Amino acid sequence: MRLVIEASDFRRLSTDTQKELIRHFAGRSFLEARNGRRRGQYEWREPIDLNHDLTMQLMHGLADNHRRRLEAFARNNGRIAMKQLLKVTGDKDSKVLSYFQSVVTRKLRRILGDSEKKTFLIGWDYASTKWNKKHTEIIDGDYYVTNKTLSALKAFFRSA
Q1: Residues 93 and 132 reside in one and the same domain
Q2: Distance CA 148, CA 157 (A)
Q3: Based on the domain organization, do 28 and 74 belong to the same domain?
Q4: How far apart are CA 59 and CA 55, in angstroms?
Q5: How many domains, in total, are found in the chain?
Q6: Burial of 136 (0-12, 13-18, 19+ CB in 10 A)
Q7: For residue 9, what are the contacts with CB-CB under 8 A and spacing of at least 6?
Q8: What is the pLDDT of residues 7-36, one digit of tens each?
Q9: Whole-model pTM above 0.85?
């Protein structure tokens, strides 16, 4: 069975009814994650913290190569160089990592209901950026996740 409620129709429902529907279809952890942050609290350039429930939701249905890259963050204390992250799956083109980030970011935003599109999981350490001689192409640098996300990822991969 498939149930579709348009956003405009959903907003017309009472707050209690909205919460009950979300609780039933998305789970209690979704509401707790949403209520844990006030509207507009997501910050630009600041990766979000994952907890256990968000990690489980994020990993559900995620492709194996994306999981392996996230596991690399757990094995490397939440910080990994671009070249190292490419080696995890044997890729050579850095565009693969952009695709990886976009998949994870879109899924996380859907889970959290982030219509402002501010949330993201993986940050880039601009101070670590290494450029080619002409300064036209990035050749390496560090990706990172927050310490809380690191803990959640370590716990997830220990139990997996």
Answers
A1: yes
A2: 14
A3: no
A4: 6
A5: 2
A6: exposed
A7: none
A8: 777 777 777 777 777 776 665 555 445 444
A9: no
